[in-house]
Every structure is written in C-alpha cells, then in structure tokens.
Design a protein that fits this description.
heterodimer, A: Nucleotidyltransferase, domain 5, Actin, Chain A, domain 4, Substrate Binding Domain Of DNAk, Chain A, domain 1, 4 domains, six-stranded mixed β-sheet, 15 helices, about 40% helix, B: Helix Hairpins, 2 domains, 8 helices
Chain lengths: ~625, ~230
C-alpha cells in the first residue's frame, strides 16, 4: 500500500514529514546525517552516480561544474526568463535550451524537474528507511505565487520521482495549517513567508464551522525570485568588489574560490542574526586571503532594499483582501530569512504587532504538508483548506489585449467558459492563446499555452465552440472544448508554452524507472557484499579459535565449501545470489557458533560463584 | 436504445447517475450520497437554490459557501472514482464561481443581465453620458495639462490639486450611480415577488444596463486620473 508524506521542496533545503500516528502530530523525518534538512543540491559523480544533499554540498567546492543548487529558480521557466539569474548563479545552461531549460552537469544534460526529482527521491529514501515501508504518495508544497508552468514542473518532478502527487499546496497555506493546529486561533492571519529563493504573503481567514475548521485564503501575492539567495548575492557583490580593489583579482564565476566565499558569507549572514558582528575570512589564492568584519548595522543597510521589496506584495495582498494591517489577528513568519532581525522588525512595525515565530520556520511548511497529506489519505477531514489562484487567467483578444476570464485570488477550483467562433468565411481553425498575469497586453503576461480549435469550413460565425478553462485544486489549468452545434466533445491538443509535454514526462519516467531499478540493484549488491564481508570475517575468526577443533571434519569441509561459494557469488553482480550464499554459510556455521558461544559463556562464568550469577 | 441529446439533458439532474433515484437537481443523491452533475441551465442563483433576486444577505451567502465547500471540495474525493472526482471538480468550481460572482453586488447584476441576454461579456459601452460631457471635457483638459507640465518640468502641484478636486467630484457621482443601481435592483426584486409581466421586467433590466454602462465609464475615468496622480 505504501505511505503518504508531505514534502517541502525548497530552494535551499527540502524536508519530508509525516503524520505521526502515536502523537497525532506531524513530524519531520531526519536523514542519514541526523538533520531533517536536506540541502537542495544535486551532484553527478564521474561514474554518473547522482549525489543529493550533504554529499552533494561538499562537492559544490570540489566539483562545481557537476553540482547544482537553487534549481527551484529554474522550474517552469524558459531561457529568456533567467538571463538575469545567470549573472548571479553559476547555472550551466545548455545552448540548445529554449522553453525548457537544460542544465549541464558534467557531460550530461538535465531538465529542472529531473533535478528536483532527484531531491524528491532522496527524501523518499529517507522516509522509506524510517518507515521500513515504501512511500508512493505525497503532498508537495509550492510558493503561493508560482504560476501554472512552475506548478506543472513541480508535479512533473513528483511523477519522475515515482510519487503520486495527491496535491500541490501553497507554502504559506501549509504553514498556516501547521500553525493553526498549534494555536487553534480564529480570525485573520497574515503569513509572511521569506525563504531561500521565494517570497510569499498570504492573508487567511480562519473559520470555525459545525463540521470543522476552514482555512480560507483571501488573497496572496509574492515574488518567485526574491529570497535569502538575493541577500547572499548582495553580500557577494560587496566581497567581490572589495577583492577586485584589494587584489586586482576577478573571481571566476564557476571557480572554487567563489563557492568558498559564498559559504563563508552565508555563515556570516547566519551569525548576524544573533550577534552584532561577524568575521569573514576566505582564501582566494595560495598567497591571498580576503578578510573583513561585517557589523549588523552594515548588513542591515545592505539588505534594507531587499527587505523593502517584500512589502509591496504585502500591501497588494491586503488591498485585495479589502483589509488593513490592523485587521490581522495574527502574523506568522515562515522561511529561514525571517530569522533576520531586520525582517522581524519590518514586519512587526507594519502590522503593529509582534509576529509569531514559535514554530521552527524551516520545518513548518513540511509539517503543514504532512497534515494535508493525512487528511487526503485518511479521508477523515478535520479541516479544509480553501486556496486561491495567485494570478489572473486570461485569453488574448484582438490587438494583443488580454481579456481576463478568472481574476486573481479566486478560490480554486475555479472555471470560466468562453465561446469561440469564426470571423471569416471558410476559416478552419481558431487560435486560442491562454495567459496568466495582471498586465493589459499579452506580451507582458506569462504565456501558458496555445491551441487551435479545428472547425469545418463554413460561413463566418457559424461554428460555436465552447471552451472551458478550469484551474484545479493544485492551481493547474485544464482546458476542455465542446462543439455546441453537434453537442460533442471537441478534442484539443494544448501545447504548453514552457515546460515538458506529457510525452516528454512519460519518456523520462520510463528511463528513470529503468534507472531506479538499476540503482536499487546496485544498492542491494553493495549492502549484500558488506554483509558477506562481515560474516566471512567472523567465520575466519571462529576457525582461529582453538575450540573450533571440536567440530567434525565433514562439518569443517561443509563450512569451507560455503565460504568458497559465497566468495564466488560476491565477485558477481547478482545480489540475490549473494544473499542466498550468506544464508547457506549461516546454516553451515550454526553448530560452530553454538560451540563457541557456550564456551564463551563458560569463560565468562569461570571463577564466579553460583550466587553471583 | 439510444438517448437523444435533449433526453440526456433532461435526465441529468433529475435522476442519480449512479443509483437512478430521483435527485431533482440536488448536489448529492439523497439515496446513495453520490455527488451529482449540475443540471443544464442552472445559474449561480439556482446553485444555492435561490431565485434570481439581487438582494443577497452577505453573511448567508458566505455561510452557504463554507458549508457547500466542506462537502463539495475535491479533497473529499481523492480516493473516489474518476467520475466522482470530475463531478466534484465541476461542482466545486461552480460553487466558487457562483460565490465570487454573487458576493459582489455589481458583478451580481452584471451576471443577471448576462444570463438574461442583455449584456455580452466584455462589451460594456464606453460612451460618455451626455449630461457629463462638459465635466469630462474639463477633466481631460486638466489631465493633458498635467502630462504636459510633467514632460516640460513645469509646476505640477497646482495642476495636481485641481485634478484631485475634479476626481473627487466624479467619485461622488460614482457613489450616486451606485445608489441608483441598487434602487433599481430592489425594484427588480419587488417585481419578481409581484410576478410582474415581461415588459415590466425588461424595462428594469434595460435601466440597470444603462446605469452599468454609465458607471463603467465614470469608473474608468476615476481610475485613469488615479493612475496619473500616482
């Protein structure tokens, strides 16, 4: 049957959580390094092996050209969208990329959903190890302000990781859910979510009904490219400028020194949340070391413009909810960047109340995802999330103007019907261009998809095709068309403007399943060999023990035969055969083990009176 | 036996698709509990089981919205059959569309006129009401002067002041138009209660349509001044 989990697929860190049946509370699952945070970093080893998390982070320094971080910034975007990012992030984008980005890691190309899928698969492994059971369904969180293509890319990543994505939940909404469980509050709540790469603000109304609690999002706003990364980049700009002035050195964007510099600056950023100053030291060559002290005041001056950028979306979200800052009953802080004192102060001053930050801002989103996963999985609904679509949906009309058909902040699922007809005689197709965004002109909005409605030739205006646009509970668009004259369904092929087509995802899925099977077999073989080594060592040790002389010659020969066949199996690649030979050797040595055990027991008891035992 | 389209449409909403018990347009079958497709032609008022009246208690609407959301939301159907999942998606999206439309008194009226064929989506007439022509002319002149002064770096404070004054004049007019619209809306509700004839109803609809056009014109005007002032 398998388990269901909640996953926060973050820019900097990703987490996996589940509803703990013992406590009835959500809980994050730790990985092999003891932390619940998995760095969202993927690296490809020379032999093609994929490393995720901590091991990949180490390679950021040693193998930067085979390692990628902050891939979330690339999800659902085209090459034209990320030109600005390329000046700040060491992404190696393949030249052939257009509306689907392909990242080069070593000698291989990967799409952002594939890279994200590796992160999801790693987390899945953490949970499977923790449960001793398979994990195959998940709720995955996305920034509230993600558009259709970014959401679709996240869903694709889930599928590629072998997960049935039950729902995409907006990060601030998930946080509100975890927070609400904790506080049981009613009223208006503002969730200010400032993470590694994205900023979201959501205004919620918490309602208590006779059936249960409803968490209704009234409005949301944000910036999908504003986060702690930008603070790191501001620090980097200062340091690089100073290094240039001091040593006349231009650091290579892809080099090791840059990664090291970024690391020490991030450490300083963290320190400045609790201390008044932080020292930065970074070796940039064998003879040159960049060293300087940052005071908190200096840091705050540097990041003030970035923090200020978060307030425009906050004002817009409140205006859309028709509420004022004073109407908020609670303000909740989510995301690692809300640890920065200036952020807390800015938010507190604006809302005129101390924001809540009792819950770990790194974990709260994953915890909320686990709560929603549990509701969907168990079918026992104790609360209901009503979320909204962050951006208006529109279609292009004459002159490149966008006609809005579903306004932003509409509760989802939401739909709109539009009638299409022909404008000239014998027209055989009607082009439809679907967009997302708030601007008047199509060229300023995000293109979601284009399709053509095919109609039989005839007089102008005779064809009557009704197209239904539906934004589902994941915030993803579905389109269906009906021919009103014949009453039949009208098939359409929607070509997404950005991201992978269904066929491409299918193809990757097939490849990844083969790959995953191979992966699984490799891992099993390694584990079986390790176990075999252990039992062989133990057997040798037993033979060296003088008491092993007690066994018969036949028995000794049988053990020796088993040892030989185990060694032969270990040289091969069949993990099942290795396991079988281990079992055989175990059988053959049962008697020997008993003899040794008994004599060991005797040795232990010798010299002791019976009373002591 | 083949069912004609009209027969099929008549069946939708009258008997349960699953157990064939009569459902009479309800959201759920009273007998087997399965979610039902929406009968063809149901409007947003009908979705809540209401007549096409324009006075709606916002608290009641919100309460109904929350109650029905609890029952119809796709969260309830994650483990259901594909057919039920799709029906829930349809019904809950219609619930949200209906709430969004009826929640706002203006979009509620626009929707009614749309349903009754008096308006077409996105075809609001943008004609200056004759009685406002003179003031509109003055306002546009002030706007031009401000733009000019801004381009040439002239003194804009005085011009801004004049524009703000003129804008507040139009804002007042907008409020007046809103009051006028609500008054006709109440007349419409009374006409429904009194079972008024088609001619009387059509006259009220035409009046609301005319006021909406005027309203839209003034609103755009106020909006464009706002943009210029910011």
């Amino acid at each position: 049957m398998g388990r269901t989990v909640g996953i926060d697929l973050g820019t900097t860190y990703s987490l996996i959580a589940h509803m703990d049946p013992q406590t009835g509370a959500p809980k994050c699952i730790p990985g092999p390094y003891g932390s619940t945070l998995c760095p969202s970093i993927v690296s490809v080893a020379d032999d093609g092996k994929i490393l995720v998390g901590e091991p990949a982070r180490e390679r950021l320094l040693t193998q930067p050209d085979r390692t990628i971080y902050s891939v979330k910034r690339l999800m659902g975007r085209g090459v034209a969208d990320i030109q600005d990012e390329l000046t700040r992030f060491p992404f190696r984008i393949d030249e052939t990329s257009s509306n689907v980005i392909r990242v080069r890691l070593g000698d291989k190309l990967f799409t952002p959903p594939e890279i994200s899928a590796y992160i999801l698969r790693e987390l899945k492994t953490w949970a499977e190890k923790y449960f001793g059971d398979t994990v195959n369904r998940a709720v995955i969180t996305v920034p509230a302000y993600f558009n259709d293509a970014q959401r679709q890319a996240t869903k694709d990543a889930g599928r590629l990781a072998g997960l049935d994505v039950l729902r995409l939940v907006n990060e601030p909404t998930a946080a509100a859910l975890a927070y609400g469980l904790h506080k049981q509050k009613r009223g208006h709540v503002a969730v200010y979510d400032f993470g590694g790469g994205t900023f979201d603000i959501s205004i919620l109304k918490l309602i208590s009904t006779s059936e249960g609690d409803i968490y209704r999002v009234l409005s949301t706003n944000g910036d999908t490219h504003l986060g702690g990364d930008d603070i790191d980049n501001a620090l980097m700009d200062v340091a690089r400028r100073e290094i240039r002035a001091q040593f006349a050195v231009e650091l290579d964007r892809h080099g090791e020194a840059v990664q090291e510099l970024r690391r020490v600056l991030i450490r300083a950023k963290h320190e400045l949340s609790s201390s008044e100053k932080a020292v930065v030291k970074c070796r940039i060559s064998s003879t040159q070391t960049y060293s300087r002290e940052f005071t908190r005041a200096e840091f705050e001056d540097l990041i003030r413009p970035i923090v200020a950028r978060t307030m425009a979306p906050v004002r817009l979200a409140l205006a859309d909810a028709k509420l004022a800052p004073k109407d908020m009953d609670e303000v909740v802080l989510v995301g690692g960047s809300t640890r920065i004192p200036l952020v807390r102060k800015t938010v507190g001053d604006y809302f005129q109340r101390a924001p809540h930050c009792e819950l770990n801002p790194d974990e709260v989103v994953a915890l909320g995802a686990a709560v929603q996963a549990d509701i969907l999985e168990s079918g026992v609904k104790t609360m209901l999330l009503l979320d909204v679509t962050p951006l208006s949906l529109g279609i292009e009309t004459m002159g490149g103007v966008v006609a809005k058909i579903i306004p932003r902040n509409s509760t989802i699922p939401a739909s709109a019907q539009e009638m299409f007809t022909t404008g000239v005689e014998n027209q055989t197709g009607i082009d439809v261009h679907v967009l997302q965004g708030e601007r008047e002109l199509a060229k300023d909005c995000r293109s979601l998809a284009r399709f053509q409605l095919k109609v039989p030739p005839g007089p102008a205006g005779l064809a009557r095709i009704e197209v239904k646009f539906l934004i589902d509970a994941n915030g993803i668009l579905q389109v269906a068309a009906k021919d009103l004259r014949s009453g039949g369904e009208h098939s359409i092929e929607v070509q997404p403007s950005y991201g992978l087509s269904d066929a491409e995802v299918e193809h990757m899925l097939e490849e990844s399943i083969e790959f995953a099977e191979q992966d699984f077999a490799d891992r099993q073989l390694i584990e079986a060999r390790t176990e075999a080594e252990a039992i062989l060592t133990a057997t040798e040790k037993a033979f060296r023990d003088p008491r092993s002389a007690e066994i018969s010659v036949a028995e000794r020969r049988s053990i020796e035969n088993s040892v030989a066949s185990l060694r032969a199996a270990m040289a091969g690649k069949d993990y099942k055969l290795v396991r079988q030979r281990i079992d055989e050797l175990n059988q053959a040595t049962t008697n020997l083990a008993e003899i040794l055990m008994n004599s060991a027991l005797q040795t232990a008891l010798e010299g002791k009176r019976l009373d002591d035992v | 036996m083949s069912v004609t389209k009209t027969q099929a449409q008549a069946i939708i909403g009258s008997i349960c698709w699953s157990c064939k018990a009569p459902v009479d347009g309800a959201h759920f079958c009273a007998s087997c509990g399965k979610v039902q497709p929406l009968p063809v032609g149901t409007d947003y008022f009908g979705f809540f089981g209401w007549p096409q009246k324009l006075t709606i208690d916002p608290a009641l609407l919100e309460d109904q919205f929350h109650k029905l959301s609890w029952k119809l939301h796709p969260d309830n159907f994650v483990r259901a059959s594909e057919e039920e999942r799709n029906l829930s998606l349809d019904r809950s999206s219609q619930l949200n569309d209906a709430y969004r439309t009826l929640h706002d008194p203006i979009s509620r009226i626009e929707y009614l006129l749309l349903r009754l064929g008096l308006r077409k989506e996105g075809t609001t007439k943008q004609q200056a009401p004759p009685e406002l022509l003179e003031e509109v002319f003055e306002l546009n002149e002030s706007l031009d002067e401000l733009r000019e002064a801004r381009a040439e770096g002239g003194d804009i404070d005085a011009l801004r002041g004049r524009l703000v004054e003129e804008q507040s004049n139009f804002k007042e007019k907008l409020e007046g138009v809103d009051d006028e619209l609500q008054a006709v809306a109440r007349e419409w509700d009374a006409a429904l209660d009194a079972n008024a004839n088609d001619a009387a109803r059509d006259a009220l609809l035409a009046r609301m349509n005319e006021i909406l056009n005027r309203r839209s014109y003034i609103r755009n005007l106020v909006g464009s001044v706002q943009k210029e002032l910011e």
